[in-house]
Amino acid sequence: MTSNALRCCLVLLCALAFLATGATANTASDDEAVTQDEAPQHGMEIREAWIPMPDGTRLAADLYVPTGGAADARFPVLLEYLPYRKTEARGRNWPLYSYFVTRGYIVARVDIRGTGNSEGTLVPYEYSDIEQQDGEVLIDWLSKQPWSTGKVGMFGISWGGFNAIQMAGRNPPALKAFIAVDATDDLYQEDVHFIDGIMHLDSWEMSQELDNARPGAPDYRIDDANFRERFDTPPWMLTWKRQQRDGPFWDRASWRDRESRITVPGYYIGGWYDGYRDVIPRALEHAGGPVKAMIGPWSHAWPNEPYPRPGMEWRREALRWFDHWLKGIDTGIMEEPRFAVYVRDWHPPGPYLDTAPGRWRWEEGWPIARIKNRVWHLRDSHTLGAPEREPRVHQLRYSPGTGIEAGGPVMWWGDAAHDQRGTDAFSLVYDSAPLTEEMEILGMPYAQLRVSADAPRANWFVKVSDVAPDGRVTQVAGAGFNGNHRRSARAPELLVPGEQFPLEIELHFTSWVFPKGHRVRVSVSNAQWPMMWPSPHPMTTTLAIGGENGARVLLPVVAPAKRPAPDFLPPEKSPSLAGYSNIDDGNPSGYGEVSELRRNPQTGEVVAVATNSGAQKYPWGEERYQERIEHSTSDAHPENTRMHGTHSMEADLPGRKLRWEAEMDFRSDMEAYHYDYVRRVFENGKLLREKRWSERFPRDP
After folding, report:
1. Which residue of 125, 202, 512, 678 is most buried, as measured by CB atoms within 10 A?
2. Are 554 and 444 in contact (CB under 8 A)?
3. Which pLDDT band holds residue 14 (cuts at 50, 70, 90)?
4. Chain-centre distance of CA 310, in angstroms?
5. How far apart are CA 76 and CA 318, in angstroms?
6. Whole-angstrom Cα distance, residue 426 to residue 601?
7. Three-state SS string across 27-91, please?
8. Contacts of 248 (CB under 8 A, 6+ apart)
9. Residues 116, 135: Cα–Cα separation, whole Å
């Protein structure tokens, strides 16, 4: 037997012993928990475990465990709690977790009930009470194992960041700290279902529906239990899209306006090109416990694997954070300023951006005293400047099929957006004179408008952009507003056609340095398709200019100051796990991107097609996925907007080929939304199961 084979056998025997006994016997006290410096001290192995819930359901866990230390060593536990199939994700998790495990942590990666390899019926939707109740049980279980010090931290990106915030709000006793990357505490206004209170359909929503139906790898057991507990369960999208107004459904797991009740120490990490970044100033200002934050130049990605560059080794900062709160080590992290911000310098528009120019800077927290709002009035000459006495009204004819340039490749308020000139041609546009000196902004720009529409439903969109001397227009900030929410997103009201009303729009969190000689642009429109579902009426809107109620935008201008820079490390090369690799990475963003755009100038019809595909290799076989989403609308009939999506996933296994397919048709008319969805599974080309759903539900006012 070779030395490698012998080593593999020993690792396997250790893992089997662990599963049989639950852990190695340990007599160390809490004060004797393992501690180390930043240098790696351990190897790493994966041990599978089942975590029992009170109703007998077991959640499947991969435990990434330090090796090479004392047999009775105990470690703090870091939890990532997701529906994203832990077994297939080992190729992602092994390099990600290695930084923590080799430095003295156990990382537990747990599949949410009814997903991946966990038992039970699929949870009814994301962030459900079931998910969070199970989360409290598993945190308690992790804290009480003989290999645990009793202290648990949570971390994660996107879903894992969301539920880290939510679990901290529930304050389970063993949860001592958390890190939320690219996540938010506002499920209605900032998640992907109703961005800014407006209907949004996301490729993630559709692809996740198909993944929810699939059994765990590598067995992919397709039987009556799989059909009953997963394949036949109602689509999550039906639940989401029925909830068109803010209220109790979204409140249950939203901690916005309740941040003061989160006393568990939290570290919030965001990216300027990610859609989930507004939570950072809120948490810094209102969190009830110790808090730190950073925001850097990346999109929806781990900062050590950034897009765009530059990245940084966020795990070093995470280690210092968790060492402080879970190990009691004075790492100095709490003596540093609370907020690290990457200041963005000008760059040309996207849609792709390899490197975002700028620099890091420490700030003490939020708000920052030297930020003062500079008011820019929208003028009758379509310029920005001083207020005008004489009131005027500017009109805009609604073009529902415009706005594709504003959302970037993933179609949300993030990513490096396209040149804005295409959308601005169908907007009311106001430009400043060329700047005589550099101007930095940091925060949420704020628009104060007075508007009307000759229809009962309308949306408004405000963007701030940078106009370069050569004419290129780079989006700096933006936001939308559902006009029917002008008084309340919880009790929408139809507009009174022709009636003017005030509209105040807080744009999303931004940083930007406008160079000398560039212009500031403010644009106002009524469409941002296909990011936002169009309002259904052909119409003309008005915007009050000048006089007492004239439109204005407040930009948060930062006064220059000498501030130190963080000493962040560059990303560290991480080990890979044999047998797991990407065959095809798909689109750069990882999501469906518009690959085809067709406009008919005679009819006003417009069609956009977004596609994506990819393939992964696992020890047991290969998986391939494809998606195609077609959006369509028209100037004459915006009520008849449609989105048609197809998704497929194939598992090519020895002697067996499985294929899951899903097709969704979501369309609207003047009064209602219509949802049709079909899900299929095939084995070796034979149809095993097909399930359909069809529903009509009325538009909310």
Report:
1. 512
2. no
3. very low
4. 20
5. 14
6. 14
7. CCCHHHCCCCCCCCCCEEEEEEEEEECCCCCEEEEEEEEEECCCCCCCEEEEEEEECCCCCCCHH
8. none
9. 16
Q: Before 218, cis peptide (omega within 30)?
A: yes
Amino acid, single-letter form, for residue 137? V
**Sequence-ordered list of residues with C-beta below 8 angstroms from that of 638, at least 6 positions apart, any chain:** 398, 400, 534, 535, 536, 537, 538
What is the Cα–Cα distance from 637 to 586, expressed in whole angstroms?
A: 34
pLDDT at residue 4, rounded to an integer: 37
Tell me, rounded to whole angstroms, the distance of Cα 281 from its chain centroid. Answer: 17
Amino acid at 218: P
For 701, the token pair is 């006012």
What does the alpha-carbon distance between residue 414 and residue 393 come to, in Å, rounded to a whole number? 32
SS3 528: coil
CB within 8 Å of 138: residues ≥ 6 apart: 51, 59, 61, 79, 81, 108, 110
Which residue do the tokens 């009556």 mark? 224
Cα–Cα distance measured from residue 68 to residue 121, given in angstroms and rounded to the nearest whole number: 39
Environment class of 312 (CB within 10 Å of its CB; exposed 0-12, middle 13-18, buried 19+):
buried
Q: What are residue 395's DSSP bridge partners?
A: 542
- Fold annotation for 371-558: Jelly Rolls (2.60.120)
Q: Which CA distances in Å does 179 have to 108, 264, 638?
A: 15, 10, 42
Whole-number Cα distances in Å, 409 to 36, 308, 404: 43, 13, 9
| Correct CATH for 3-199+244-363 of 3.30.200.20, 3.40.50.1820, 3.40.50.10610, 3.20.20.70 | 3.40.50.1820
Q: What is the pLDDT of residue 37?
A: 55
Q: Both tokens of residue 173?
A: 């006793």
Could you give the C-alpha distances from 403 to 396, 411, 519, 526, in angstroms and in order? 14, 10, 21, 9
Q: Which among 298, 272, 214 is positioned nearest to 660, based on CA atoms?
A: 214
Secondary structure (3-state) at 420: coil
Amino acid identity for residue 628 in this structure: R
CA pair distance 243, 187, nearest whole angstrom: 12
Q: Are 100 and 177 in contact (CB under 8 A)?
A: no
Whether the upstream peptide bond of residue 564 has omega within 30° of 0, thus cis, is no
What pLDDT does 17 receive? 36
- Half-sphere CA count of 107, side-chain side, radius 13 A: 24
Decide the pairing of beta strands 686-698 and 106-111. unpaired
* 477 DSSP β-pair partners: 464
CA distance 142 to 172: 12
- Using the predicted structure, report yes or no on whether residue 16 has a pLDDT greater than 60: no
Residue the block writes with tokens 């403010």 = 522
Separation of alpha carbons 131 and 167, rounded Å: 10
Contact between 81 and 160 (Cβ < 8 Å): yes
Q: Encode pLDDT of 117-137 as tens digits.
A: 999 999 999 999 999 999 999
641 burial level (CB within 10 Å; 0-12, 13-18, 19+): buried
pLDDT at 34 over 70: no
How is residue 229 annotated by DSSP? I
Instruction: Please give the structure tokens belonging to residue 371.
Output: 């930020």
Amino acid identity of 402? T
**Please, what sign has the CA dihedral across residues 501, 504, 507, 513?**
positive
